[in-house]
Amino acid sequence: MSILMAVVIALGLDYWLGEPKRLHPLVGFGGLADGLERWLNTAGGSRAQRRSNLLQLNGTLALTLAIAPLGFAAYSLEQTFAANSLLSTVFAGLVLYIAIGWTSLIQHAKAISAPLSVGNLIAAREAVGRIVSRDTQNLTEPEIAKAATESVLENGADAIFAALFWFMLAGVPGVVIYRLSNTLDAMWGYKNERYLHFGWAAARFDDLLNFIPARLTALSYTLCGSLNGQTQNAWHSWRQQAGTWKSPNAGPVMAAGAGAIGVELGGSAQYHGQTQTRPTLGAGIEPSAKSIDDACTLVNHSLVLWLAVIGVLVWI
């Protein structure tokens, strides 16, 4: 029961307070990660190619130095509070609150869909540029909607469901290690000259931690697609299209999500001035402001499903 109460506390705080505006622990962690990267990442031109194995080793060391001490601290604090059920539950709820991003995800999405629904492309482009890495300055209305919808579906898995999964499985240390690894992947997981080898360990570790949660999220999207009569479409999209996507975890999530809301995602997108042609995900209508809102609704319905399952598991 304390596990369920901790989840309720976390979601309640997230709903009422949103993401911490000041002194967010992950901002401080990002500063630590930057320092480790400057110290251990010696990438540079042809030298990086000759020393790729060393850079991978350095990246693995940086990953360990960034995560292990904080993971151990989380374990120690959890054990310290274990004797007091109330303190233990409140502590766990606070940590989980910091780790999840449910409300901020929905708020960012609504900040895009609202101006897009009235044809304000300038405001919509500015808003979508805050949550995606692709070039946004010349996006059309469907392209803005597509970028935002993809982001909502994928980040639903990363920012909500994977955090809940690791909290349920491994408590406070589990969710701390997951959130820190996900942050490092976002910082170091780029396939460019600077991070190709150094960020390898962070990217692979994040892939490992997200493997099961991503598929549970895809299953949740598929089941909740029944509310729109799209379960079969979601299942078909997941099974037929997930493997075509470049990310082993984003593929199932986005394919199932696209199918569940009856929209077609993927296709061409521009990153850093270069056009990338991506496989098609889902099937249905062209993305629009409604698609963004539908993706938010799907995430919310899936969260209700997860809470119901957690409640059942707690009572067993």
3D structure, described in words:
It is a single chain. The protein is mainly α. The protein has one domain. It is built from twelve helices and two strands, in the order H-H-H-H-H-H-H-H-H-H-H-E-E-H. It has helices at residues 2-17, 25-40, 45-50, 52-81, 85-99, 102-117, 121-128, 141-188, 200-224, 231-241, 250-260, 289-315; strands spanning 264-271, 274-282. The protein has a two-stranded antiparallel sheet. Strand 1 (264-271) and strand 2 (274-282) form a beta hairpin. Helix 8 (141-188) crosses helix 9. The longest helix has 48 residues, at 141-188. It is globular. The model has no long low-confidence stretch (mean pLDDT 93).
Short overview:
The chain is mostly helical and 316 residues long.
Topology:
Elements (H helix, E strand, L loop, with lengths): L1 H16 L7 H16 L4 H6 L1 H30 L3 H15 L2 H16 L3 H8 L12 H48 L11 H25 L6 H11 L8 H11 L3 E8 L2 E9 L6 H27 L1
Antiparallel strand pairs: 1-2
Figure out the total of helices: 12
Number of strands: 2
Given the C-alpha coordinates, what overall shape results? Answer: globular
Largest sheet: 2 strands, antiparallel
Low-confidence stretches: none
Determine Rg (CA atoms, Å). 20 Å
Number of structural domains: 1
Provide the residue-averaged pLDDT: 93
What fraction, in percent, of the residue positions are helical? over 70%
Strand order of the largest sheet: 1-2
Order of helices and strands: HHHHHHHHHHHEEH
